[in-house]
Amino acid sequence: MPITTKQxxxxxxxxxGTVDRALNGRAGISSKTRELIEETxxxxxxxxxxxxxxxxxxxxxxxxxxxxDLKNRFFSQMSNAISLAARSRGYFTYIAVTEKDxxxxxxxxxxxxxxxxxxxxxxxxxxxxxxxxxxxELEIPVVTVGNQLPGIHHVSIDEFRAAYDSAHYISSAGYxxxxxxxxxxxxxxxxxxxxNLTSQEQRVQGFLAYTKKNSGMKYKVLTEKDFGAAAAExxxxxxxxxxxFCSSDIYALDLLKYLGDHLISVPEDAGIMGxxxxxxxxxxxxxxxxxxxxxxxxxxxxxxxxxxxxxGAKKPGHTCYVPYQICPGETL
Length: 332
What we know:
Elements: H1 5-12, H2 16-23, H3 31-43, H4 50-57, E1 62-67, H5 73-88, E2 92-97, H6 102-114, E3 119-122, H7 129-137, E4 142-145, E5 153-156, H8 159-172, E6 177-181, H9 198-213, E7 218-222, H10 227-237, E8 242-246, H11 249-261, E9 270-273, E10 290-293, H12 295-311, E11 319-321, E12 324-327
Parallel strand pairs: 1-2, 1-3, 3-4, 4-5, 5-11, 6-7, 6-8, 8-9
Antiparallel strand pairs: 10-12
């Protein structure tokens, strides 16, 4: 069994309070006694009892991180950024995935609350007043990324503006026909208000705001599950060259592969633009045009914001935008 502070106190012939002060860097003891206690702790491989110390401090020094899944590179990158930012501040992260299941999300949140996490960073799939009330009843600071919840602190890019600027960029490249590819919108339940898709919805709205504003632009929103086949059919039937603006890089890469497999060349026969600028794009040829979201910066800022909420330095309910930029590529 690992040595305890009581045993260290007995070995060093001091009180447990003195051991506690020495191991936690507090004043009130001589340097000679401190060195003796620290040396004894190292010699016997002392490990602090985190649960006991967290109860005494009123903090667990842990946070919950809740995402759809980690198969999407966006979420794994974000999880990594949050974990590194948390560790630099002395926090441990519990990472959980919901698999886009509402009941799983609620159960995970309650499980994390029962583990006394100090805060939560999440990309919610649930929305509505009942969920927000349930979330607030946990009495744990929450920061959302991606999808928003009214009254909850949020860190992201300006999704609407980024999509608007991207549509303008595509138009400036000479395209008068643009199709926005957003498969999640097709799913049953996502259009009846039960599921949270604010990130995708804001991107769609930004795209539509630009295309509807500019006369002569032909536009379409593609939500089919088999969007590759639908896109290929559009290309074959249209006399005009079409650009496909995808709501994430994953869809853009899927489309790029599908068109290549069906002998449709990009950008000769059609253009493609993604969204997120995932790190894997470094290995893709032709280089994908995309919107660069600083995933590391979002994760870092989310953790900074959560720490401020935990300490009481900030009040919940604000939105913090991080910068984005258009990344030219070879697919337009």
